[in-house]
Amino acid sequence: MLSEKQRLRLALRRGEVDRPPCICPGGMMNMVTHGVMQAANVFWPAAHTDPGLMAALSAAAHDTGCFENYGVPFCMTVEVENMGAKVDLGDAVHEPRVSGYVIESVSDWKRLPPMDCARGRAAVVLEAIRLLKARGSGVPITGNLTGPVSTASSLMEPTVFYKELRKKKQDAHDFMDFVSEQLLAFGLEQLKAGADVITISDPSGTGEILGPALFAEYAVPALNKITRGLRGAFPDAGLIVHICGQMRSVFKPLAGVDCQALSFDAEVSLREAKKNLPGKAIMGNVSTFALEFAEPDKIAAMTKLCVENGADIVSPACGMGTGSPLPNVQAILETLKTAVPIPIKAEAV
Amino acid sequence: MSEAEREILDDLARSVLDMDEDLAANAAQRAIDAGMDAQRAITEGLSRGMEAAGKKYEEEEYFVPELLLCSDAMYAGVEVLRPHIVHRGGGRGRAVVGVVSGDTHDIGKNLVKLFMEAAGFQVTDLGRDVPIEKFVEAVRDGAQYVCMSTLMTTTMPGMERVIQRLKEEGLRDRVKVIVGGAPISQAFANKIGADAYSASAPDAPAVLMRLSAIPA
Q1: How many domains, in total, are found in chain A?
Q2: pTM here?
Q3: pLDDT tens for residues B74-87?
Q4: Residue A174 falls within a domain, yes or no?
Q5: Using the beta-carbon criterion (under 8 Å), do A166 and B60 form an inter-chain contact?
C-alpha cells in the first residue's frame, strides 16, 4: 500500500494511485478545528506563536484521522506581520487578522522591510516544520505561503490597492515584484526546513475580484515568480496553488500558472476545471460551509462527488471554520478509504 | 428638459461609468452654474452612471477595481454638488452597514454602501470587525436597515447573535436585517431569521426597497 507521502506525491504528478489523498494544506486553508484543539489540548492563539504547540496541533489534525498531511501555519498573517503589519492573533475560534497596515500606496513599497525569516512567527513556522520533520512519521508536510495579491493587499488598504492596479501600474508591478521575492524567500526556507509541498493560497487575487485582464497582468506572473523560484531550488517540491471564487472567466490565464496542482472553491465545477486545465492535478472542493453546518452523510456524498468529478486530491474547498465538527471533517478521509472502489487512471506520468 | 441639461446629466452619468473624476467634478460644476437642482444632478446623473456601472459588473465586464474607480468619480461629483443640496439626501431611509466581528474583509461591504448611497439611502458605515453591540446600538439610534456581511464561515454565527440581541432588546420589529457575503445564502438568512439576503452588492438597494415596498 502507498504511504501517505507517496500517494500525495503521485497524485500531484497525476500518477496512478489507489485513491485520491485527503489533505488540508494549512495557511489560509487552515486544517485545525476546535475538536482538533481539544484532542491535542493545544489551543489558538497560543499555537500561533510557539513552534512546539504549532507542530503538536498540526500533527493532531493528522492523528485524529482528519487529513493525511501536516500543515503550518494556521493563518495568512505571518508574512505581512514580518513586514510590519499589526496583527490581532484572534482567539480559540477566530483566525488571526491584520489590524494595521504598513503603507498607504503601492508607491511606498520601498519603505517595506524585507522578510527576515529568522525572527517572529516566520521563525516559529520554520521551527515547527523542523519539529514535524523530526517525528520521522513519513507524513507529508505542507508549508504555506499567503498569495502575492493577498499579501500585497494586507500591507495596505485593499480598496486603494485595487484601484492603483489600474492607476499606478509601474509602481504596482514593482510592489508585486518585491512581495513575490519575499514570499519566495520564505517558501525556500520552508522547503529547507523540511516541507515536502508548498501551497500558495491567494483569496484576494481572484478572477472575480480582479477580472481576467488584471488577473493575467498581476496575479499570474507573481505566482509564477514564486513557483519557478521554488522549483529551481527544489525540483522535487510539490507545488499547489489555491484560488478562491468562481473561475470561469480566468481559466485561460490560470492554465499559465506554473504549478502541479490547482485547488478550487466549492462553487467551481471540478469537471469543468479538469477540462480547462489539462496537465494540472485538480484539488478540492468539499464545501467548508457544509463542513461547519451539515452532517457527516452529506460530507460523504460531497466527497464521492469530488472523486467522480475527477479530483486528484480531495480537500476542504477553502479556509475551514474552527467550528466544523470532528465527525464532519473525518468523514472526507473515511469516505475515501471505504467508499471509493475505482482506482483513478493515470492520464500521464 | 433642455438640450443643455440633458448634456450635463449625460456627462455626469458618463463620468462615473468611465471612471473620470475630472469630468465628474466639471459636469457637477456646470450643473450648479446652470441652476440645476443638485439632488436631481445626483439622481439623474451620477446615480444613473453608478447603476450602469453595477450592470457592467453583473455582466462581468467591470470588476472590483473598476467599480472602486467609478465610485471615486461619483464622490468627486457629489463633493461639488453637496453644498447645494436643498434637502439632505437619504430620503429612502437610514441604513447601517458593517462586517461582523472577527472578519476584516470589507470590499463587498464597501460596494454595498456605495450602491445604497447611489440609490438615495443615508448610510452609516460601522466598518469591519464590528462588535455585535455596535449593530444593536445603531438600531437603538434609529437605523431602519442593518446590512451585515462576512466572507468567512467562522464569523457567520455573529449575524445570528446580532438578531438575537435585537430581539432581547425589543428592537427587532423596528428594523429590517439584510445579510450577504460569499458563504451566505437565502437558506442561511432564513435560518437565522434575517429579513432578506442580497446575492450581490448592486442588488442590495433593490432588496431593501422590495422589503419596505419603496417605489423604485
Answers
A1: 1
A2: 0.88
A3: 999 999 998 887 75
A4: yes
A5: no
